[in-house]
């Protein structure tokens, strides 16, 4: 069956669980450093190792980060909460339990709004967000005979973000995960790097006959390492499910993994009934009581979020949805844009410079805009020079911008002056130049006079040569059409 056939008959239901590693300095329940990529088993104390007699201590930064995300997703923030122990045995979990939140997640409800390609907007409801700790890492592919364990990750703070089963297409899933990642980055609480595992996605998928009220059997795909693969794995599973159902074969409640090269999923383990994690309240940590004051303080610390910026750019600044999307895609780009428009109201031109010449430099040099050499203020000055006809747009784009790259500390007006690129503002001078060119080229002038408009290009070339490209093309066209009448 192909996707189209399947979707004529069946309806997709997806719910997503995302684990986001928080970028705090230290771990969730002790002062060990929280850093990726260090020498294995160097960021560990007896607490991370779960030695008997040690006591955890809660890192309040985790609480702040969780509340920020909760505010951004418009969740209900839980005032009275505690931590729970989730008990299971695994080699990379030295304590034998994970500290998490079961009954009292810090956030309930809330939603993430996504935009789809067809222009439709959809609100994806969240079930909950809770705080927990990461386990260590088992490494199966370094040593051919042994599994290696790195406990640097044990105790790293996580937020788990769970959606309701309301996602209806693989595109919605793609947009949802993109939106969450964007938000985590804007809030500066997680780097969202899926390849390094700082954001991990589990996707729950089922299908049911169109219009049915009863969900089908779900399977869970674990640890997808890119947003693209979230979408691909769903597209693969829909068809696999439909083909089984068409053959009257029951779908197993499995956990599966996605194999990126082949684009297919394979069974990892079957989910036995329900796990018994024997959750109980963590006796070593105090319950947490949040005051309104504390939540309000967090509200006042919120940065501008991408959807708010999008609204501002489309309504107040009059930019198109397309431009506003591009500008808000990355927080750093939006920040740079904000700095440029502190000094200019030509928002469209600021957008064009950033998404055009600047973006192509960033791509060429593989750098982020934070490392871009030219200060935002100089870009706004450049825009002003063009708007005031001090320099032609083409000269600014082709020459002055390069010069600004070479001398990022010098302002563009000085650079243009130094290179003699300032337009001949005195039209009298330009008129003289045009007249001389008409005189020097009598046959072209004759043909132009008798209506051969395509010679405009020829004269433009001559005039640009004579003015070293500083003439404003619009003025030139106006003047040659006016002056030719005298010939
Ligand atoms: P577990 O803890 O076993 O993973 P949960 O009940 O917490 O189970 O659900 C996890 C995720 O699965 C949630 O995002 C939820 O929306 C989603 N989900 C639940 N039932 C279905 C279903 N039938 N089809 C697709 N997704 C589902
Ligand atoms: Mg799950």
Helix content: 25-40%
Report the portion of residues in β strands: 15-25%
DSSP strand count: 17
Whole-number total of structural domains: 3
Number of helices: 16
Please provide a brief summary of the model.
It contains 16 helices and 17 strands. The protein is an alpha+beta fold. The chain has 3 domains: 3-293, no CATH class; 304-418, no CATH class; 427-486, Arc Repressor Mutant, subunit A (Orthogonal Bundle), CATH 1.10.10.
Structural notes for this entry:
The protein has about 475 residues and is α+β, with helices and mostly antiparallel strands. The protein has 3 domains: about 5-295, no CATH class; about 305-420, no CATH class; about 425-485, Arc Repressor Mutant, subunit A. About 40% of the residues lie in helices and about 20% in strands. It has 16 helices and 17 strands. It has helices at about 5-10, 60-70, 170-185, 225-245, 290-300, 305-315, 320-330, 330-340, 345-365, 375-385, 395-405, 410-420, 425-440, 440-450, 455-465, 475-485, and strands at about 10-20, 75, 80, 85, 95-100, 105-110, 110-115, 120-135, 135-140, 150, 155-165, 200-210, 220-225, 255-260, 265-270, 280, 290. The strands form 4 sheets. Strands 1, 2, 6, 7, 8, 11, 12, 13, 14 and 15 form a 10-stranded mixed beta sheet that branches. It has a 3-stranded antiparallel beta sheet with strand order 5-4-16, with no helix packed on it. The protein is elongated. The mean pLDDT is about 95. Magnesium ion (MG) binds near residues 17, 202 and 220.
């Amino acid at each position: 069956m192909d996707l189209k056939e399947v979707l004529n008959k069946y309806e997709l239901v997806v719910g997503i669980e995302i684990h986001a590693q928080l970028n705090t300095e230290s771990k969730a329940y002790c002062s060990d450093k929280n850093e990726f990529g260090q020498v294995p088993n160097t960021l560990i104390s007896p607490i991370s190792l779960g030695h008997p007699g040690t006591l955890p201590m809660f890192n309040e930064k985790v609480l702040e980060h969780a509340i920020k995300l909760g505010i951004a997703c418009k969740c209900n923030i839980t005032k009275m909460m505690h931590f729970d122990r989730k008990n299971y045995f695994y080699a990379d979990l030295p304590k034998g339990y994970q500290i998490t939140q079961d009954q009292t997640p810090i956030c309930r409800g809330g939603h993430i709004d996504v935009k789809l390609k067809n222009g439709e907007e959809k609100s994806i409801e969240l079930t909950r967000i809770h705080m927990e700790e990461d386990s260590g890492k088992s490494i199966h592919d370094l040593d051919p005979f042994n599994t290696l364990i790195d406990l640097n990750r044990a105790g790293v703070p996580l937020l788990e973000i769970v959606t309701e089963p309301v996602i209806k297409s693989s595109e919605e899933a793609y947009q949802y995960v993109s939106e969450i990642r964007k938000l985590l980055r804007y809030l500066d609480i997680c780097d969202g790097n899926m390849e390094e595992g700082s954001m991990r996605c589990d996707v729950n998928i089922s299908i049911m006959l169109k219009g049915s009220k009863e969900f089908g059997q779900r399977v869970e795909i674990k640890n997808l390492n890119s947003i693209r693969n979230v979408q691909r794995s769903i597209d693969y599973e829909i068809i696999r499910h439909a083909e089984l159902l068409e053959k009257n074969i029951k779908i197993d409640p499995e956990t599966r993994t996605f194999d990126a090269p082949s684009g297919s999923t394979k069974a990892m383990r079957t989910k036995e009934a329900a796990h018994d994690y024997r959750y109980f309240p963590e006796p070593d940590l105090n319950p947490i009581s949040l005051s309104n004051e504390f939540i309000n303080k967090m509200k006042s610390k919120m940065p501008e979020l991408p959807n708010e910026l999008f609204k501002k750019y489309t309504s107040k600044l009059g930019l198109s949805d397309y431009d506003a999307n591009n500008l808000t895609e990355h927080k750093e780009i939006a920040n740079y844009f904000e700095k440029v428009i502190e000094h200019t109201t030509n928002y469209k031109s600021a957008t064009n410079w950033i998404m055009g010449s600047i973006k192509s430099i960033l791509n060429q040099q593989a750098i982020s805009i934070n490392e871009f050499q030219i200060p935002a203020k100089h870009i706004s000055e450049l825009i002003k020079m063009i708007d005031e006809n001090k320099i032609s747009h083409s000269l600014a784009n082709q020459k002055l911008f390069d010069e600004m790259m070479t001398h990022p500390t010098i302002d563009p007006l000085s650079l243009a002056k130094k290179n003699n690129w300032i337009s001949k503002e005195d039209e009298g001078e330009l008129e003289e130049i045009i007249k001389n060119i008409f005189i020097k080229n009598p046959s072209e002038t004759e043909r132009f006079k008798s209506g051969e408009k395509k010679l405009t290009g020829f004269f433009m070339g001559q005039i640009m040569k004579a003015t070293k490209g500083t003439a404003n093309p619009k003025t030139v066209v106006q003047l040659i059409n006016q002056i030719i009448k005298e010939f």
